[in-house]
Design a protein that fits this description.
The protein is mainly beta and 129 residues long. The protein is built from one helix and nine strands.
Length: 129
């Protein structure tokens, strides 16, 4: 029998699969959430786990949504295939999110999670729908 999508995993478009499953990257300044500022949270597009809060989002000018902190325990860091960067993945479903950088001094937390918009889904705060 052919393997189908895992239970509780959202069916992904080919573009979403290229990034989330195969570790691709969307074009800079092209993502839905790059210049997005509503109040709420950002969840993994594949499994729905909450990853980031809007209060931790900032404009790094890099072309992708940037956050200086993840929801505790929601994001896993691993060495990237390129041997230089640190990849970030959803701790629940292992979906590729992007990369994390430290020491750039964009915020007092000194951390930038550079995340592909296509890996995320926005969940508005109550009252901000």
């Amino acid at each position: 029998m052919a393997a189908g999508p895992r239970p509780n995993f959202r069916k992904l478009t080919p573009a979403e699969e290229r990034v989330i499953v195969h570790g691709g990257t969307e074009m800079p300044f092209s993502g839905e959430y790059e210049q997005f500022s509503r109040k709420g949270s950002y969840a993994c597009k594949r499994c729905g786990a909450v990853l980031y809060r809007s209060d931790d989002k900032f404009d790094a000018g890099c072309g992708w949504p940037s956050f200086d902190q993840e929801v505790p325990g929601a994001v896993r860091r691993i060495p990237d295939r390129d041997g230089e960067r640190v990849e970030i993945r959803c701790a629940t479903c292992d979906g590729h999110l992007g990369h994390v950088f430290e020491g750039e001094r964009f915020t007092p937390k000194n951390t930038r999670h550079c995340v592909n918009s296509i890996s995320l889904v926005f969940v508005p705060s109550p009252g901000d729908r």
